[in-house]
Design brief:
34% of the residues lie in helices and 14% in strands. By secondary structure, it is an alpha/beta fold. This is Hydroxypyruvate isomerase.
């Protein structure tokens, strides 16, 4: 049985953040994820997880000055101290929240930055983070995010590049966070990529996320054949989390109105 985590940055956004946990549980989700928890005390979030029997599936390391356009620090030369400070903050939150998956965003390097220096900076930061988090039993995620629509200039923008980086990084607790929406935009070939990334005793994919394309709406609102892909995941025995990082197509009607696709998978009372 596939298990889904509501991304509370995107879903149930008509409520205050801490009230979204109850909404996710009521809708039948067993887990939650979101971009960042750092505006709220970890103990307050832990209380919501416990009250609603939810698992914290994933969140991101601090990504720099989001309002100013920063989208991660791992590939930014000269920001190594900020990256490490963010890593320490994320570790503290992960311990309180019981979270065993953290995502380190690569970021958007400055125009004109030396490509070799950017790559070396990224590899050094990710290796350091992976070795630090291994002591906590945490797996570090690297996610290719499309640079065509959502994040122009994002350094890690294709699944092919992300899989290749796993070998270059060389740390056992690093996996690819495979978002099918971003992957469809950049490369497509989703079914074969899932089979490749989940093959073998040590899968290359450690976390999945879903949204449809175009528009980043819920599964079934666009061109991606999600029932077909979910059947592949079940056949492959995927037992990790699938994060629902999409924008409800009908914002006025709310998240609940677009959850018809989720009916076969929802957690039911009892």
């Amino acid at each position: 049985m596939l298990k889904f985590a509501a991304n509370l940055t995107f879903l149930f956004a008509d409520r205050p953040f801490l009230d979204r946990f109850a909404a996710a549980a009521e809708a039948g989700f067993a887990g939650v994820e979101y971009l960042f928890p750092y505006d709220f005390p970890a103990a307050d979030i832990r209380a919501r997880l416990t009250a609603h029997d939810l698992t914290q599936a994933l969140f991101n390391l601090p990504a720099g000055d989001w309002a100013a356009g920063e989208r991660g620090l791992a590939a930014l030369p000269g920001r190594e101290a900020d990256f490490r400070a963010g890593l320490d903050q994320a570790r503290r939150y992960a311990e309180t929240l019981g979270c065993t998956r953290l995502h380190a965003m690569a970021g958007i390097p400055p125009i004109g930055a030396d490509p070799e220096l950017v790559r070396a900076t990224y590899l050094a930061n990710i290796r350091h983070a992976a070795r630090t988090l291994a002591a906590d039993g945490i797996t570090l995620m690297i996610e290719p995010i499309n640079s065509r629509i959502d994040m122009p200039g994002y350094w890690l923008d294709s699944p092919r590049a992300a899989f290749a980086l796993l070998d270059a990084i060389g740390e056992a607790n690093v996996r690819v966070q495979y978002d099918l929406y971003h992957a469809q935009i950049m490369e497509g070939d989703l079914a074969r990529t899932l089979e490749y990334g989940l093959a073998g005793p040590v899968p290359r994919i450690g976390h999945l996320q879903v949204a449809d394309n175009p528009g980043r709406g819920e599964p079934g609102s666009g061109e991606i054949a999600y029932p077909f892909l979910f059947a592949i995941l079940e056949r492959l025995g995927y037992d990790g989390w699938i994060g629902c990082e999409y924008k409800p197509a009908n914002l006025a009607a709310g998240t609940e109105a677009g959850l018809g696709w989720f009916a076969p998978y929802r957690r039911r009372a009892g």
